[in-house]
Backbone:
């Protein structure tokens, strides 16, 4: 049975399926198989470039009677090029249309980074580069206040396109600022978090505002090795304390790390297309970690961030742009 976390009065399954980096040829079947296996929480985004295929999997699962729409918690995210108030609703509706649904359970601002607008007909998803065909292509920032974007996000709730709204990749300072002007408060903060990046102060800040937490990349380096943003040697799964806990509980090291995330009160959204891993990642309710194990795993923290615009933007997109101190 999938545990749940409270998201301002609604229960969201604590374990979801992350859809980043799932290929177009596998994602529809993966979503279908995940729903068949018991997943009810799907974490999507326009930037992942696979929402139409995700929608195919959802539609097929509902048609086959595996679930109904109301059983699912579906999250997506506003991309950086759509931060101006006149583009937010259209971006949300584009994702809804691609997914074949008429509302989001949760819609998030993907990054606190505003980039110049790219029309759907020119390129979708727009990704980071403004003119990919240039000799030296770069990302181009747009001067859009975060408050403007949030005001348009609030109108999605009022228009019943999104039941909850929230943010990704915000710092504590940005949360404090957001809470000072938000009419509809953020329900969720999605951040990179794993035993090498526990983000204790940020988690406590969000919780003090009754903002739930979803941890992306909950297994750490595994999502980034193929992108040359980490090496196999960066894996937290090889840590002796994790191995020891797995042996004691009779589970895998990945299950220990995911259980650590859930047990500290966050949702986790691991990505996999393998049937055995889908079941494994979902099976976290039959064991728990001891207080000593939780403390020891948290003590692995290195403040090691794998997904950092301050690192990857300059090399990949021609412009240094840091959002974390």
Residues:
């Amino acid at each position: 049975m999938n545990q749940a976390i409270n998201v301002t009065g609604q229960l969201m399954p604590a374990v979801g399926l992350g859809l980043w980096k799932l290929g177009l040829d596998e994602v529809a079947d993966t979503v279908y198989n995940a729903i068949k296996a018991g997943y009810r929480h799907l974490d999507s985004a326009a930037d992942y470039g696979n929402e139409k295929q995700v929608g195919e999997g959802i539609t097929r699962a509902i048609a086959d009677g595996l679930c109904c729409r109301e059983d699912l918690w579906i999250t997506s995210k506003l991309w950086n090029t759509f931060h101006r108030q006149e583009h937010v609703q259209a971006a949300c509706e584009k994702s809804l249309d691609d997914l074949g649904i008429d509302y989001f359970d949760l819609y998030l601002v993907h990054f606190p980074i505003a980039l110049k607008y790219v029309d759907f007909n020119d390129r979708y998803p727009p990704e980071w580069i403004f003119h990919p065909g240039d000799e030296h292509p770069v990302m181009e920032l747009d001067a859009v206040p975060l408050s403007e974007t949030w005001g348009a996000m609030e109108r999605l709730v009022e228009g019943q396109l999104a039941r909850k709204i929230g943010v990704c990749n915000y710092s504590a300072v940005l949360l404090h600022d957001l809470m000072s002007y938000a009419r509809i408060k953020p329900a969720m903060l999605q951040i990179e978090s794993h035993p090498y990046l526990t983000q204790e102060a940020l988690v406590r800040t969000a919780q003090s505002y009754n903002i739930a937490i979803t941890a992306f990349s909950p297994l750490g380096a595994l999502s980034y090795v193929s992108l040359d943003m980490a090496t196999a040697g960066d894996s937290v799964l090889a840590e002796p304390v994790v191995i020891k806990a797995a042996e004691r509980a009779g589970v895998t090291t990945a299950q220990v790390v995911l259980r650590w995330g859930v047990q500290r009160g966050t949702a986790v959204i691991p990505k996999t297309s393998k049937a055995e891993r889908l079941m494994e990642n979902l099976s976290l309710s039959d064991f728990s970690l001891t207080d000593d194990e939780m403390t020891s795993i948290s003590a692995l923290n290195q403040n090691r961030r794998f997904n950092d615009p301050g690192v990857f933007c300059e090399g990949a997109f021609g412009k240094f742009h840091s959002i974390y101190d």
Notes: The chain has one domain: 11-317.
